[in-house]
Design goal:
alpha/beta, six-stranded mixed β-sheet, Rossmann fold, Transcription Regulator spoIIAA
Length: 439
């Protein structure tokens, strides 16, 4: 480990965090942050001078892995004497593959050790870093950053073993937290000022606690009076129980939004990927949800350029995306990952072809989001207000995961604000139409 050239203030050391990747990572960063603040550390934004920098990285794609390493280099330039810690999935892959990539990090800590970082720092440098609080599974998580949304990890691990995915290797087998433990954490978060709770996991739909499933967890969280809204993170189509959709249709707190990864709209590619459904099954599940919840916001992930993806196979994906009312489309070029089955497949798609296919789908996604938003014109929706700008306009998000701008009111941060949509701009909802330009 690199030795610091100055004396850290042991009573008030500084720590910064950079989170890359999924909502599960964000939820875990909140917990890691709580351990540091509980030990007396002061949190500063990533990129500022710091004593300790934690890079909580992602390795799901090559770009995410490169972003993690780029964040290390950024910190090294901004705080050359800081102790830099790489953790999360990139750390796990490096430890397993015994690779030297990531030399800019002073410590590479896998998944099992990332929730005990203050204790590790104190053990390595007792004169520089304070002892931690007694480590518990659920430290008090306070609203450190300017957001009303808290990510709560309820499940980890996955054993689906899709051909392109490193998650089973980096996060292990599925495991779920007990409902009472989650409810207690959510209660503390809500009492601390968080209004929206996002339930997240590596494979959220696999949640199970002694026979109780995800819908039972949702009901338990809904019963907490201070919780205003609940949102589900990404959930697999093969684990999306109709009970969840039925409950969403009648719930007063569960947001009308589902993010269900598609990955490809071609049956041959889905089979090669090792996905557990075909296009017809996906359509049926989406149709069921839309029939129950007509205003449902629908998000998905698509991998473009998977090995063997011919032009007709890609066109099948485009056709399916056009047929379904996706409002949030996340498109990624396929990225080879060492240790996955897909890494050794023939018929790798050229980078230029992947880039063009990504462009086509992202442009389609932008148009579909605008169409979805325009469908709310004349209707009343509710937004959770996150901030008010200098002009007095309130900004927030609806349950369908659409941004809202509400003018001419005295709304405040944290308000739940019903309003009638009069106008949309690139998928953003407004309660006023713009004044016509003078000639």
């Amino acid at each position: 480990m690199r030795d610091c050239l100055y004396s850290v203030d042991i009573m008030n050391p500084i720590v910064s965090f950079k989170t890359i990747g999924c909502r599960l990572n964000q939820a875990e960063t909140a917990t890691i942050t709580a351990h540091f603040t509980g030990a007396g550390y002061r949190v500063v934004p990533h990129g500022e001078a710091t004593d300790v920098a934690v890079i909580h990285g992602c390795a799901i794609t090559g770009k995410a892995d490169r972003d993690s390493l780029r964040a290390l280099r950024q910190v090294r330039r901004a705080a050359p004497d800081a102790i830099i810690i790489l953790t999360g999935c990139p750390a796990e892959t490096r430890l397993k593959l015994q690779t030297e990539k990531g030399d800019d990090a002073d410590l590479v800590i896998g998944q099992a050790g990332k929730f005990a970082l203050p204790a590790l720092l104190h053990r390595l440098h007792p004169s520089r870093f304070p002892p931690p609080l007694q480590i518990t599974e659920n430290p008090p998580v306070l609203p450190v950053f300017e957001t009303l949304r808290a990510f709560v990890k309820v499940q980890d691990g996955c054993d689906f073993r899709c051909a392109y995915c490193v998650v089973p290797e980096t996060r292990g087998s599925p495991v779920s937290r007990p409902i009472p433990e989650i409810v207690e954490e959510v209660r503390r978060l809500a009492d601390s000022g968080f209004k929206e709770i996002v339930l997240t996991g590596a494979n959220l739909g696999c949640y199970e606690d002694n026979g109780r499933r995800l819908v039972d967890l949702v009901r338990a969280v809904e019963a907490i009076p201070a919780v205003a809204r609940i949102r589900l993170s990404s959930i697999e189509i093969t684990t999306t129980e109709n009970l969840i959709i039925d409950h969403m249709a009648t719930s007063g707190k569960l947001c009308h939004f589902l993010h269900i990864p598609l990955q490809s709209g071609d049956d041959g590619i889905l089979k090669t990927m090792g996905r557990r459904y075909d296009v017809a099954t996906f359509r049926q599940a989406i149709d069921y949800a839309l029939n129950k919840i007509p205003d449902l916001g629908l998000g998905t992930d698509i991998i473009v350029g998977f090995p063997g993806e011919s032009q007709p196979a890609f066109e099948n994906t485009v056709r399916l995306v056009r047929d379904l009312p996706f409002s949030n489309l996340h498109v990624f070029p396929y990225s080879r990952r060492a240790g996955t089955r897909a890494d050794g497949l023939a018929d790798q798609v050229p980078a230029a072809v992947k880039k063009e296919r990504v462009r086509i789908l992202r442009e389609l996604g932008t148009r579909q989001r605008a169409v979805f938003a325009a469908g709310f014109i004349g209707k009343t929706v509710e937004a959770l207000i996150e901030h008010v700008d200098k002009a007095g306009a309130a900004h927030g998000w609806t349950g369908q995961y659409l941004e809202a701008v509400i003018s001419g009111t005295s709304l405040r941060r944290g308000d739940r604000a019903p309003f009638t949509v009069a106008h949309t701009v690139e998928g953003q909802l407004h309660n006023f139409k713009p004044f016509p330009a003078r000639m």
